């Protein structure tokens, strides 16, 4: 299994608590948050990961190097911000096989990656999305599901329990070709949302813990979540 980890975020909303660091390098329970994400990949049996980096990418490379606990690391460096889609397309130059997992370096999800891969292959899907159950979907927006497929991505503003897009994808080379090369492009807003009926993404349901450290409140919640935990 291979992964592309989007780790180029500026962390604008975290400036008050984490100045001058890429968001995935924000310290959580004494370690960069990205280390917790990579630990999950190591424990799940991944062979390699491409870190899609940009802002202060040297800080990430200096800390993790080319190998993290047996996980081979490659770096895809954006000279200018390319958005999620552009970053995925650029990083895919370092991928040797498809399908490939894509995930965010500033979110953590307890997920059975092997089970998601098996479901993806069994369904002969081009795109699978980790659908995480949350008690309140208001911050994230919700997924409208029909059976095992996503019908619509609903905007933020709905409330109550439901499934959200947890930002972990399994994509085929066919999906990659839908992303223009070398230009800013939003994977979510310019591909997933407008072409959802055409692509019919598979929803892989999970009820594992999910956290996004993008705002100070959840950054503090992450400190409590990982306090006392050892690496996987």
Mean pLDDT: 91
The CATH topology turns out to be Spore Coat Polysaccharide Biosynthesis Protein SpsA, Chain A
Main beta sheet? 8 strands, mixed
Name the helicity range: 25-40%
At CATH's second level, what is the architecture?
Alpha-Beta Complex
End-to-end distance, in Å?
Answer: 17 Å
Whole-angstrom Rg = 17 Å
Number of domain units: 1
Annotate the secondary structure layout.
Blueprint: E1 2-6, E2 27-28, E3 31-32, H1 33-44, E4 48-53, H2 57-64, E5 67-68, E6 71-77, H3 83-91, E7 100-104, E8 107-109, H4 113-122, E9 127-134, E10 142-146, E11 149-154, E12 162-171, H5 173-176, H6 187-192, H7 196-199, E13 202-206, E14 210-212, H8 216-226
In short:
28% of the residues lie in helices and 30% in strands. It has 232 residues and is an alpha/beta fold.
Can you characterise this structure?
The chain has a single domain (2-226), classed as Spore Coat Polysaccharide Biosynthesis Protein SpsA, Chain A, CATH 3.90.550. It has helices at residues 33-44, 57-64, 83-91, 113-122, 173-176, 187-192, 196-199, 216-226, and strands spanning 2-6, 27-28, 31-32, 48-53, 67-68, 71-77, 100-104, 107-109, 127-134, 142-146, 149-154, 162-171, 202-206, 210-212. The chain is an alpha/beta fold. Strands 5-6-4-1-7-12-9-13 form an eight-stranded mixed beta sheet, sandwiched between helices. The protein has a two-stranded antiparallel sheet with strand order 2-3. Strand 5 (67-68) and strand 6 (71-77) form a beta hairpin. The two termini are 17 Å apart.
